[in-house]
Specification:
The structure holds two protein chains of two kinds. By secondary structure, chain A is mainly α. Chain A has four helices and no strands. In chain A, 40% of the residues are buried. By secondary structure, chain B is an all-alpha fold. In chain B, helix 1 packs across helix 2 and helix 10 runs antiparallel to helix 11. Classes of the chains: A mainly alpha, B mainly alpha.
């Protein structure tokens, strides 16, 4: 059960809101002023970070998957292979995402129960 | 509805599935600690950060000190500090309030969509609105999901188990797209390497910050080579 009073709860939400916003705004504040042109390094990072972050976020999404406890991450592995495979084959976001999600749902609901 | 909105809606479809289900689960948790849908919806409206909102349930349950709340918020969202770096250029020229909102709404998934999806030819002239619609649609899915979870969550009984895989599938698709668009694949290997290594060393709950530090360090070390080989010039 919730242990905060109304005021504490609202304060906690306010703090989370402000700090989340600050973390998202930092680069814009630091590097987008008129006289503060982003340097070489920042432009370089801006270019190469998305692909690196994307695959890291994929690993992050799968972080709770266990390879040693039943079902050994098999539904996730099948789902990921299917999503990637379908996408390389058809290159259609809709088919890749919905196709793999439906198969994954069948796997976790009916096959690996 | 106009064309730009339609195009934006199309690319956010996987996020629709993902956010509705993950938001729904958040709503259920909020309701389980004795708070109602106003709290669930209010938090999704003002905080709008998935992982942190899940943790918020634990904070409320444990009555965590506000200083710890602040520290947690900072560390959990640490990764967002690098997202803006890729969006300074694309966001240039966007009006102040729209930009303010889009910075506020920069979640993992919105960041992924904004940095990966090429703006469709037919709405190229309307890029500002296209980005804005993507941001606002994503947040509305999240809010709707959490309110639904906190209201009807305990009543209805459909088996939606596994729907949130859509989000993992979205990242798979975006990784494939990035891979195909990149001349030099090194950043992908750096990201994968740091992610897995950090997961193995630091565990599921603490992998994020070391992984980001590792990624930035390796990318910077790789900068000289990239420059020498001129890989970055389009």
């Amino acid at each position: 059960m919730n242990k905060y009073t109304l005021i504490q709860g609202l304060l906690a939400i306010g703090i989370m809101c402000i700090i989340t916003f600050i973390t998202r705004a930092v680069p814009f504040v630091l590097f987008s002023g008129k006289d503060k042109k982003p340097g070489d390094t920042i432009l370089y990072l801006g270019k190469v970070l998305p692909p690196a972050m994307m695959i890291m976020l994929l690993v992050y999404c799968l972080k709770d998957m266990s390879l040693i406890v039943y079902p050994y991450g098999i539904p996730e592995i099948i789902g990921v292979i299917l999503a990637v495979g379908l996408h390389i084959w058809k290159r259609n976001n809709f088919i890749s995402i919905f196709g793999s999600t439906i198969v994954y749902m069948i796997l976790v609901q009916a096959v690996f129960v | 509805m106009n064309k730009t909105f339609k195009e934006a809606f199309k690319v956010t479809m996987p996020v629709l599935l993902g956010y509705l289900s993950i938001g729904f689960a958040f709503g259920l948790m909020i309701q389980s600690i004795g708070l109602n849908f106003i709290w669930a919806g209010g938090m999704s409206l003002t905080i709008y950060a998935g992982t942190l909102q899940y943790l918020a349930v634990v904070m409320f349950q444990g009555g965590m000190s506000l200083i710890s709340v602040a520290l947690m918020s900072f560390f959990v969202n640490f990764r967002h500090m690098v997202y803006g770096l890729s969006l300074i250029e694309p966001f240039k020229g966007i009006s102040f309030f729209k930009k303010l909102y889009m910075i506020f709404a920069l979640t993992d998934e919105t960041y992924a969509l904004l940095t990966s999806s090429t703006v469709p030819e037919s709405v190229k002239h309307d890029k500002e609105k296209y980005y804005f619609y993507i941001s606002i649609l994503d947040q509305s899915y999240w809010i709707i999901g959490s309110i639904l979870g906190a209201t009807i969550g305990s009543i209805i009984n459909i088996n939606t188990n596994g729907v949130s895989f859509a989000m993992i599938a979205l990242f798979c698709v975006l990784c494939v797209e990035q891979w195909m668009n990149l001349k030099d694949k090194t950043p992908v290997f750096i990201g994968g390497f740091c992610g897995i290594l950090s997961l193995v060393i630091f565990g599921a709950d603490n992998m994020m910050i070391p992984a980001i530090i590792g990624i930035i360090t390796l990318l910077l070390l790789d900068k000289k080579r990239e420059e020498k080989e001129g890989i970055l010039d389009e």
